[in-house]
Design a protein that fits this description.
heterodimer; A: alpha/beta; Rossmann fold; 2 domains; six-stranded mixed sheet; three-stranded antiparallel sheet; B: alpha/beta; Immunoglobulin-like; 5 domains; eight-stranded mixed sheet; 10 helices; 34% strand
């Protein structure tokens, strides 16, 4: 059995991002390519303002959606007289209203996100910036917040390209701190703003309390949830050997382990089981899931993998 | 494997201490990871997290344990005992004690030893030499180290145990001198019943024997006093349990004594009974145990034969008169000083004659000293007073020199022998060596009033008895020298009936008496019987003793060798420690 011990958590300096990682989250060329993209909502959403996507509210929009049989009380203006003349039956035309999309970006800024080269947090911030930027240019309502052991700073109700700078500046100022508690963060976030929309969670999901409760809560709020699981290469394949006292960067928990081939084999088995559990959980609950490592460039992720994953088009 | 210092094995306690210290030592490298979640998840089904797993995989700990164990083992000074082809010369030492006749090891201990020694010779590496030493009453080099294995095999085949307590220690000392400088090995086969084998580096012992029960006759003697004879039988129970031993004594087949002796463990009992007549007295003990050879004993009833005496010198009426009545078989007188003329006489009396060197024989020299005796006179002494004499010596028993006056005597300067009577200088001196048994009286009868005293016939009778062949209490293992008296050959008939031709050397017949019993010496002058007893009262002790590092192993396949292992263990410990140090240095920051 591993030897557990509670020791003070490492000093914050030990997990701070490396110098230079805050500078310029997204380069202009990449931003330019993002202008042509939009976020995909798999279900019709109900926005607060007119936007550039169809809402669940039919009737006042300009984009034809469907026909249905006339019912007493329907607006005569929407009766399709051409069909009535041909079929001798009354049908009304249905139009979708174009409303804005409520996009919430939730970025894990716990200390574990400082791991990796480049760090997981940098990639998370770049992804959040890119997705948020796409939402802003499409007149979606973008909320971006960070969390660790609870909800952190948050930037709400961003709309329009003009708020892109605010978004980038906010994300650029984020530093890793605290331990991960996804459940608490999502509960508070959704309690404060229960409106349905697109929820993008960017995290390493290394949550000692478990990731399931938080994601289930989002599901309960009928949020379209997209989880981007960011891991470091060292977490997938630790390059360790010998007699080690492994110290958890977030909790300070200590595990004494003799790292040899057998131990690494056991770790790989535990890793695979964990990742498979995450993937199966997301699939079972209709949560979109994308796993990546911090070494994958953000532009490739957005332009290729998020497109394939159906988050952007 | 034998250990020179077994107490040093406690040093092995350093190994568990080392392991405990290793476990207690904080040597883990601290490493910050983003999360220990997956490490914790991997722990339950795997052994990588067990503390003992550190021991299993730690090469450094293993090296440290090996080094410590090697050092601890070296402190115990181990040496290997093994039958190997070996190298160097080999000297085989066979214990020839009577106890080696014990049959608890089939066929006998000695035969088993002989067989194993023969195997050693068969496995001897080419070009190496082997020798053979017999641990009899005294150490005997049967064959000095030689490459002639045929000669060795023949000597082995002829070797037999004696009725003695073998001098194993002396034999081992002698054997080690045959392989000086530690360039060879000494292999000893013994039962160590009386003494363990010396613990010497190049000596290896093979202890034979399992039984300790033995009851045997340790002595059978006939003593005579004023014509009456009395037999004495001494029986000892060498075992650790009481026994009842029926004893029968016969003379020429007729029972003369019978009794059942109840002997406690370790008890010795002597029984005596009167005997008369002549012949051979035979005692027999009806006890069954591992050593049947000491259940019988023989002794002569016949008194010692009277000697023949030749008087050489000028006329000496007192002496001549006395010789006519003295206990001699025949007496004659001559003036011939050539020893060749003295043949056929047991005792020659040299009375005031000057002779050349005398050959081996029995001599009573009166007023003269043969030049080859180590007591050359340095002059004369006038009116010496016989101040002291040894009344316990058989020659002077019942002799009283108190009133004897001497006018002049030779001033003897003996270099050996022993002085029986002395005044200002030795006056009566006895010598028994190199085949010559002699008594020198430093004064002539005419120069003293000795013939007028009772001491004179008593001294003469005692002297003739001592010189005349009374061999005394002979014991097995003794070498008896009998004057050849001019004869070239004699035949020795041993107790078992075998006959051995004994040539005369330097005027004497040297008779080897390895066994107890009645021997017969046959010469052209006649036949003479000798009664020989067991060589030692402890010869019948058969309980195998401690070996002092010996082994008890299956029959010999190769040469038995003792190899000191500890130097190699020390080297190994040093090498492993250096390796551990190098590895720990190389793995700087690792789990060293």
């Amino acid at each position: 059995m591993p030897a557990d011990a509670s020791i003070p958590a490492p000093a914050p300096d030990a997990v701070r991002p490396r110098p230079g990682e805050h500078a310029g989250l997204l380069d202009p060329a990449f931003l330019q390519r993002l202008d042509a993209l939009s976020l995909v909502s798999r279900r019709r959403v109900r926005g607060r303002q007119h936007g550039e996507r169809r809402s669940l509210v039919r009737g006042r929009g300009t984009e034809f959606d469907d026909y249905r049989a006339y019912e007493p009380g329907d607006d005569y203006r929407y009766i399709d007289w051409n069909i009535a003349s041909r079929l001798d039956r009354l049908f009304v035309k249905l139009f979708s209203e174009e409303e804005d999309l409520d996009v919430r970006l939730l970025v894990d800024t716990s200390r574990s996100m400082a791991a990796g080269v480049p760090s997981k947090l940098l990639l998370a911030k770049q992804l959040a910036a890119a997705i948020g930027y796409i939402g802003l240019v499409n007149l979606d309502r973008v909320d971006v917040g960070v969390f660790s052991s609870g909800p952190g700073p948050r930037l709400s109700r961003l709309r329009g390209r003009g708020r892109a700078f605010d978004l980038l500046r906010f994300l650029d100022g984020v530093v890793p701190e605290g331990a991960t508690d996804l459940g608490l963060a999502l509960r508070r976030t959704l309690d404060e703003s229960p409106r349905r929309g697109l929820l993008v969670v960017i995290s390493d999901l290394l949550d000692p309390h478990g990731y399931e409760d938080g994601l289930l809560r989002a599901r309960h709020h009928r949020m379209q949830t997209f989880v981007i699981h960011v891991l470091a290469e060292d977490e997938l394949a630790p390059r360790l050997a010998g007699e080690l006292r492994l110290v958890d960067a977030e909790t300070g928990r200590v595990v004494e382990v003799t790292v040899d081939a057998e131990a690494l084999r056991a770790y790989a088995e535990a890793r695979d089981a964990y990742l498979e559990d995450v993937q199966r959980f997301c699939f079972r609950h209709g949560i979109d899931y994308l796993r990546t490592t911090s070494t994958v460039p953000a532009d490739a992720l957005v332009l290729r993998y998020l497109r394939q994953g159906g988050l952007v088009r | 494997m034998t250990l020179g210092a077994p107490a040093a094995l406690w040093a092995f306690m350093a190994v568990p201490v080392l392991i405990v210290l290793y476990l207690l030592r904080v040597r883990r490298r601290e490493h910050v990871v983003s999360s220990v979640l997956l490490w914790v998840k991997s722990a339950p089904s795997r052994s990588a997290f067990r503390p003992s797993r550190r021991i299993e995989r730690s090469l450094l700990l293993l090296l440290q344990i090996v080094a410590a164990a090697a050092l601890a083992a070296a402190l115990a000074q181990p040496s290997l005992l093994g039958w190997t082809a070996g190298s160097g010369d080999v000297v085989l030492v066979l214990d020839a004690s009577m106890s080696m006749r014990a049959r608890d090891v089939a066929p006998t201990r000695f035969d088993r030893a002989r067989g194993e020694a023969r195997d050693v010779l068969a496995r001897l590496a080419p070009g190496h030499r082997a020798g053979l030493v017999l641990a009899a009453a005294r150490p005997l080099v049967l064959v000095p180290p030689t490459a002639d294995l045929g000669r060795l095999a023949a000597a082995l085949a002829q070797a037999q145990p004696w009725d003695v307590a073998g001098d194993v220690r002396g034999a081992v000392d002698l054997a080690t001198q045959l392989v000086p400088g530690g360039r060879g090995r000494v292999l000893v086969w013994t039962d160590a019943a009386r003494a363990s084998v010396p613990a010497l580096p190049n000596v290896t012992a093979r202890v034979l024997g399992t039984a300790d029960a033995n009851t045997g006759i340790v002595a059978l003697r006939v003593v005579r006093d004023a014509g009456a004879g009395r037999a004495l039988v001494r029986v000892t129970n060498f075992g650790r349990a009481a026994v009842r031993a029926p004893l029968r004594v016969t003379r020429d087949g007729a029972l003369v004594y019978g009794a059942t002796l109840a002997l406690a463990a370790g008890e010795t009992r002597t029984v005596g009974f009167p005997v008369s007549g002549s012949g051979v007295l035979r005692a027999q003990l009806d006890v069954r145990d591992a050593l049947p050879d000491d259940k019988t004993a023989e002794a002569l009833l016949d008194p010692a034969p009277l000697p023949s005496v030749l008087l050489v010198g000028p006329d000496d009426p007192p002496l001549e008169r006395l010789l006519r009545v003295a206990p001699v078989s025949r007496a004659a007188a001559t003036r011939e000083t050539d020893p060749a003329a003295w043949r056929g006489y047991d005792v020659v009396i040299l009375d005031r004659v000057t002779t050349g060197p005398v050959p081996p024989g029995r001599y009573l020299a009166i007023g003269t000293v043969p030049p080859n005796l180590p007591a050359n006179p340095t002059g004369t002494v006038d009116a010496p007073d016989i101040a002291t004499w040894d009344r316990r010596d058989p020659v002077l028993r019942f002799v009283d020199f108190g009133d004897v006056h001497v006018r002049q005597a030779l001033r003897l300067a003996p270099e050996s022998g022993h002085v029986l009577a002395a005044g200002p200088s030795p006056l009566v001196w006895a010598y028994d060596a190199r085949g010559i048994r002699a008594i020198v009286v430093a004064f002539g009868l005419a120069d003293s009033d000795l013939p007028q005293h009772v001491a004179f016939p008593v001294l003469l009778a005692n002297s003739l008895a001592w010189l005349g062949g009374d061999t005394g209490d002979l014991r097995a293992g003794q070498a008896l020298e009998v004057p050849a008296a001019g004869m070239a050959d004699a035949v020795l008939v041993r107790p078992d009936g075998t006959r051995v031709a004994v040539p005369a050397r330097d005027g004497v017949f040297s008779l080897a008496l390895p066994r107890a019993g009645v021997y017969r010496v046959i010469t052209p002058a006649g036949e003479r019987a000798l009664s020989v007893g067991v060589g030692s009262d402890t010869a019948g002790l058969i309980a195998p003793g401690p070996s002092g590092g010996a082994v008890s192993s299956p029959p010999v396949q190769r040469v038995l060798a003792r190899l000191a292992v500890w130097p190699w263990l020390v080297l190994m410990a040093v090498a492993v420690a250096l390796g551990e140090w190098a590895l720990a240095t190389r793995r700087h920051g690792g789990d060293a």
